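Reading a protein record of the kind used here takes only a little practice. The record below shows the convention in full:
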Amino acid sequence: MKKNSSENFKNFKIPENFFNKLFEFTGSDDSSRGFIVAYVDQDGCPMIYSKVCSPIVEMGLIKAIEKYLDEVDNEQQPLDITPDE
């Protein structure tokens, strides 16, 4: 019996130093840095990773994500084009 090709590969995890570099690229200084990343791992599981410098930055990122999700949700709702009676 042939093994699934995904079993031939080790589980991949995004290295911590990648997230550290990403953190360095965000914000204008140490008081305004942060990010939230959502991705799917090789097993299809959703993963969320965040690194922030302060609760204020975290709150701003969360609000931005909420706004994004609301906009995506509204775009996916079908348009009702039936005339009003």
User: Anything to note?
Assistant: DSSP finds two helices and two strands in the chain.
